[in-house]
Sequence to fold (576 residues):
Amino acid sequence: MVLPIQLPDDAPFTPEQRAWLNDFLSKALAQAGGPVAVAAPRVPVTVLFGSQTGTAEGLAKKLFKTLKKGNFEPQLHDLGQYEISSLPAEKNLLIITSTYGDGEPPDSVAGFHSLLMGATAPKLEGVSYSVLALGDSSYPDFCKCGVEFDSRLAELGAIRLYDRVDVDVDPDEPYARWSSAVLAKLGPALAAAAITVDEDADEEQGFSKSRPFPSAILDNHNLNGPGDKQTHHIALSLDGSGLEYEVGDALGVYPINPANVVDEILANLPFKPSDVPGPDGEDMPLREALLGYYDIGTLNKTLVQKWQARSGSPFLRSLVAADDKKAWDDFCWGRDLIDLVIDYPADFGDAEEFVSVLKKLQPRLYSIASSPRAHPGEVHLCVGIVRYHTYGRQRGGVCSTFLADRSQGLQPGVYVHTNPAFRLPTDGNVPVIMVGPGTGIAPFRAFLEDRKATAAKGGNWLFFGNPHQATDYLYQNEIEAYHSDGILTRLDLAWSRDQKEKLYVQHLMLQQGAELWSWLQQGAAFYVCGDASRMAKDVDKALHQVAETHGSMTADEAVAYVNQLKKDKRYLRDVY
Ligand SMILES: Cc1cc2nc3c(=O)[nH]c(=O)nc-3n(C[C@H](O)[C@H](O)[C@H](O)COP(=O)(O)OP(=O)(O)OC[C@H]3O[C@@H](n4cnc5c(N)ncnc54)[C@H](O)[C@@H]3O)c2cc1C
Ligand SMILES: NC(=O)c1ccc[n+]([C@@H]2O[C@H](COP(=O)([O-])OP(=O)(O)OC[C@H]3O[C@@H](n4cnc5c(N)ncnc54)[C@H](OP(=O)(O)O)[C@@H]3O)[C@@H](O)[C@H]2O)c1
Ligand SMILES: Cc1cc2nc3c(=O)[nH]c(=O)nc-3n(C[C@H](O)[C@H](O)[C@H](O)COP(=O)(O)O)c2cc1C
Fold:
């Protein structure tokens, strides 16, 4: 094999850059002894990913594609399907994993994780590895799953090829840094250089997270009747975008901060507003930057630490010094940047220094509530509007209130977030059980539309719940039409506040336990969407209980059964 010395024709360079790079590559190759006539041995690399909502999976596939173009012999596996007994035979292992729940591994990785952390894990001398850990620093257990994998592999004797990189929400820059460093460690520099250049040529075609599509809003209405709850059905146009999605995917939406809050912040800052660097380094007025590009919403520990260093507040000083988890949670919960600006003034010299302590405003994900087969060229969302009153102020979630209150006449930037870990069975004969209270109904509206459009023969069972039947029965007409048409084989509704005792979806699961078990025995896939902090945990407990009661299992056997369902991709969750 001759190593590549010419850049691909479509590589994104000017003719001058191309000439210089080709010249450089030729000289480097000559120095290395000229074109290699014999096959250079390919470097074996195994990429393993653990992903709940598709980000780690997307990065792993991108890395696999890159490796395939170079002098590597790559393999790609989902950690959920990977046998731990294969680990000792690996030469080079690259792991990309996210963290979910309260510092837990993604659902499908639970089994692998407990085996790796357990006493029977194999010795891994002779294995080289590196970990890219995906997470969000607003969670207390930042990147915990990646951190645990990284230290456990070292304990088992594996050699760290390159230090773990922790990703705080936005993976683009850290992924590029980690993957190019790892490639440089793994392979001949020339091959790595060529594939890095080649890979870049694939980027920036079409609309994506880094190039969102400005989408026209076709419909935006409240699905709830009068009362506290507000849930909006939002239909957006994908016309002309070239964007495609499958049911189970999510839509990323870029919000804009509320102008009244931005103006209140500006009025209370100790310096004159001036231009600041925007997201791509270009200068823009501070007001514009605070409206569209910086996070002025919820507080987190890192921001408060940076703020304290400039504020001189004795209270903040003692909070930072004590570093107590409960004290941090109590302080941050229900407060925004405006509270720091007004109640704990800080001595920023200028606007640039001020924005340097802020995080970038992030897009929010919404489970797609439509099937493209039923609504070509459109994408629908079901958005719970977050409103609350704390510390004397009425507040709102940035993106949900943007969509509900401030998006009129605007075209929000959107992109498709692929989620291969939350798909309908490919075989339409497989029955599906869907548990989706509140906004958790979103992907199941899409599933039902899709099952109807594809004339899938398998049974469909929906558990839905919300406070009151009279005001909170989201998509009532559609659901009842599916039920009377026979598309929805079974429908169980939990109106939590229509009687004295709370009634939740998991109570109905337990009441219908024998039937639920019989569906599972027939191969049904079990889906859960909605609140992660309470509902999804209780539904998980109920599923274990059904296996114990109706499958005559011990508690340990039920755990093994549920882990196997996850491994077989028959227990899939989209929870937030
Ligand atoms: C894969 C995925 C799919 C999702 N799908 C959907 C969906 O289909 N529908 C949907 O509605 N959402 C969905 N979400 C959630 C969505 O992404 C946003 O998190 C949600 O809309 C809130 O965003 P926001 O910008 O409005 O609020 P933010 O500005 O992010 O504010 C939320 C924060 O406000 C604070 N807060 C909220 N309530 C209170 C309170 N009572 N007291 C004090 N503080 C409070 C908390 O700190 C909370 O974290 C999904 C999330 C993920 C990850
Ligand atoms: N990240 C965010 O900031 C964000 C944004 C939107 C939504 N959320 C969260 O996501 C969840 C979804 O909100 P939503 O408006 O769609 O509905 P929701 O608040 O989850 O409520 C839906 C139904 O679930 C019930 N429920 C409460 N606790 C439950 C439990 N342990 N098990 C089963 N059911 C339970 C509720 O009953 P009761 O209310 O009567 O107890 C209600 O009937 C909420 O928890 C919400 O806080 C978070
Ligand atoms: C419900 C929920 C819980 C999460 N819990 C954590 C956590 O405990 N620690 C953390 O660092 N990140 C946490 N995250 C952030 C994810 O790890 C992060 O968004 C990651 O990019 C998701 O990657 P994936 O799509 O491959 O699963 C959580 C995200 C969600 C939606």
